[in-house]
Design brief:
Elements lengths: L2 H24 L3 H25 L1 H9 L2 E25 L7 E25 L2 H8 L11 E4 L13 E7 L2 E4 L7 E4 L9
Helix pairs in contact: 2-3
């Protein structure tokens, strides 16, 4: 595949991932939007509870954190892949209302099929969190450790102001790769926007 074709495939996958995340909330009325907000918030809280219970190091890291974000994500494709999801970003200790967010990603790979997972980003400081919820954050973490059925410990530390986790039914990947993932606030789910 030529470089131009590869670039076009990645761009197409990114657009598909972003479109899937956006389309999920586009046609909801006010009551449905409120129910969707509650659903996303409950998923966020349940996922953080599960992650914190998975390893003491994660729990300690969370206690130091300024904020966090959780996304319910679906990834799929064959050769050209795309991912999309919706979630919420919150400051720890209930310092403000949640910011509802979308994510999208695209790429070229050998995998095929569909994968559902939760993506968690824990923020070390206010500046990194604020850039994230403004849609101006640049991701660059890479996979460093895996945990799950084999009982390996999850690595719990900040890298460049964030710690990133990928939760599936099989376990947790710490410092999961989020290179090329785009995050942005939801115009429809955030009250007073859009």
């Amino acid at each position: 595949m030529s470089a131009t074709a590869r670039y076009a495939a990645v761009a197409a996958a990114m657009v598909l991932g972003c479109a899937a995340a956006f389309a999920q909330d586009r046609d909801l009325d006010d009551d449905e939007l409120e129910a969707r907000r509650q659903e996303v918030l409950e998923m966020t809280q349940d996922t953080m509870r599960e992650l914190r219970e998975s390893d003491e190091a994660v729990d300690e890291l969370f206690d130091e954190a300024y904020g966090y974000a959780v996304f319910d994500t679906t990834k799929g494709g064959f050769i050209v892949t795309g991912a999309g999801g919706t979630g919420a970003a919150l400051r720890t200790a209930g310092r403000a209302d949640p910011v509802y967010m979308h994510m999208g990603a695209g790429g070229v790979g050998l995998g095929a099929g569909i994968e559902n997972y939760k993506l968690v980003v824990i923020f070390e400081n206010e500046d990194t969190f604020d850039r994230f919820v403004d849609g101006a954050w640049s991701a660059g973490a890479s996979a460093q450790a895996a945990a799950g059925g084999d009982g390996a410990a999850v690595v719990g530390r900040f890298v460049n102001g964030v710690a990133v986790y990928h939760l599936t039914d099989q376990g947790v990947i710490a410092q999961a790769d989020v290179t090329g993932v785009r995050f942005w606030p939801s115009d429809r789910l955030n009250p007073g926007i859009g």
